Amino acid sequence: MAITPGITAPAPTQSLSQRLNWLRAGVLGANDGIVSTAGLVFGVAGATTDTVALLIAGLAGMVAGALSMAGGEYVSVSSQKDSELAALRQQEHELATDPHGKLHQLAEHYAERGLSRELAVQVATELSQHAALDAHAQVFLNLDADEQVSPWVAARASLVAFLAGSVIPLVVIVATPLDVRLPLTVAAVLGALLITGFVSARLGGARTAPAMIRNVVVGSLAMGLTYLVGFLVGQQL
């Protein structure tokens, strides 16, 4: 029965996939923090050179953005978790009311994947005897019956990632001399966006150059357009 461990292997693979998804979400959260906060402080910088005003606006935007990201992630993942639990309850009900039918369904799955009919039935029987719900959840739902997504973990990750990204443009623009404030902030923001673009592309298995270029273009537009808006408004004050 050396084949049984090979059949149950998807559980660790899925856990790795979930960890990569959280990491990717963290990188994207940091990216959002960089772009949105940079756009905000550049908009204010277009209207005024007052460092206190920049700090207040940046802090307000950073906190509001982080809470919005965390709240949105919590609601989204809570909905996902509710759906997963409902699907697991349905599988559990079917196993309780029609165990033979579910055993046949599982055996058919392995037979369709290339196992002989006898071996497919043997594998399905052994899996069902030890952890029927887990076997069916992995095969038909791509879920781990004992491991659901956590809304609180997702919300905390988004909160921390957004705050971490926001710190970069905020600190640079309020802590540097007025005459070099904007170019240094642009350099810091674009450098950070190159890094997040590279990391997100690598995590997704995509080409790094397009992702990095997109990040730079989006960040540049955000800073340039909001600075223009702030400048035009500042001229009317």
Summarize the structure.
With 237 residues, the chain is an all-alpha fold. It has helices spanning 3-7, 10-47, 51-97, 99-112, 117-141, 151-175, 181-204, 208-236.
Radius of gyration, in Å, reads: 25 Å
Shape: elongated
Order of helices and strands: HHHHHHHH
* Share of residues in helices: over 70%
How many helices? The count is 8
Q: Give start-end ranges of low-pLDDT stretches.
A: 1-14
**How many domain units?**
1
Structure, explained:
The chain has one domain. The chain is mainly alpha-helical. The longest helix has 47 residues, at 51-97. 87% of the residues lie in helices and 0% in strands. The chain has helices at residues 3-7, 10-47, 51-97, 99-112, 117-141, 151-175, 181-204, 208-236.
Keywords:
single chain; 237 residues; mainly alpha; 8 helices
List the helices and strands and how they pair.
Layout: H1 3-7, H2 10-47, H3 51-97, H4 99-112, H5 117-141, H6 151-175, H7 181-204, H8 208-236
